[in-house]
Every structure is written in C-alpha cells, then in structure tokens.
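Hi Y.,

Following your request, here is the sequence exactly as I used it, all 196 residues.
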Amino acid sequence: MNTQPELFTTPAPGPPNQRLFVGLFPDGHSAGLIHRLASEMRHRYNLGKERPLDHLHITLRWINDYVEIPDSDVEDVSRACEAATARAAPFEVRLDRVVSWGNGVGKHPLVLTGHGDNNDTLLEFQHALWKELIKCGQPGKGGRDFNPHVTLLYDERSIQEEPVPPITWTVNEIVLIHSIVGATHYDPRGRWRLRG
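Below is the corresponding structure, written out as tokens. Let me know if you'd prefer a different format.
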C-alpha cells in the first residue's frame, strides 16, 4: 500500500465565487441620496451596515457564478450589451419605496424599488437586453421576472413597505461587472453608452 503523499495533485476547486452581472449605476448625486436613505433606514430601525456608495446599482441581468470566468462568456455578454445599447435612448429611472424582501430565515435585503408603471422604459430595455443575451447563448439567471431595485443593506429584521421621496436619474450607460461573492469588490469589464 502506497502511503506516500502525491506531490503534484491539483487541489479541488472551491465553490463558485466569481460573478458576472450587467447593471446600471446611479449618477453621483442620486447615489448620494440613496446612500443617505440607507443610512437613515439603518439608524431608524437599528439595521445592518449600508452597502458601499459605489456598489449601489440595479442589476439588469445576473449572468452566472463561476470558479473562473471564461473569456468567451465575457465576449458573449459584451456582444449582447453592444447590440441592446445601440438601439436604446437614455431613459429615466424612478424609485420611491423601501421594503424588505425574503420571507425565510437569515438576512433580508432592504431594497429601494418603484412601481412598474414608473419604469416602463427600463422594463422594455431590460427585456431587449435579455433577448440579445439569449441570441448570444448567455440568457443569464432569473427568467423573465425583473423587479428593478437597489439593495440598500442586509439584516435579519424585515421592514414593511413604506413610501420615500422619489429618487430619479437618467440612465446613459450599462456596465458589465465582475464581482467577488462575499467581498466588496466590483471590477467593470465593459461599459456601453445608450446610443439610440
């Protein structure tokens, strides 16, 4: 029986912690308003720490989680983003409610969201992007359901929906983000301006 350790074995890969998603980010002024709102909610309800200012975004499409992101997936998603933004004009986003999501145990996201009819153009653009991703073989996760929101923080407490003063901004570009799950690290892999 050979009890000699194998010196050249490759360690088993860890769980997927590399994420690709397509998002849109508020302008600096609106990001500041959202961050201030998160801080107010945190102190009012004794909640967890608010998300970093430069991480506040709406996820248009979560592509996948990976152990290592293949270049081919980045190229596929980039083609879809290029095609979707070529036909889309800048549009406004309007968010006017906060609410906790999730009904299980653990931490719930507290999100800033808005009524669907306030964001029809956003919904149409997200659907157009999804169709382009399908053409490129990268439909992403989440099916057709899309509920635009910005995650403010996470906490075990759940907060009922309440209205807030509307926060609006004009979307001029979308960004492909490589994030490390569980870490505060966002690496932009591409930006596309809306040119329609």
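Residues 24 and 174 are 5 Å apart (CA to CA).

Thanks again,
Q.
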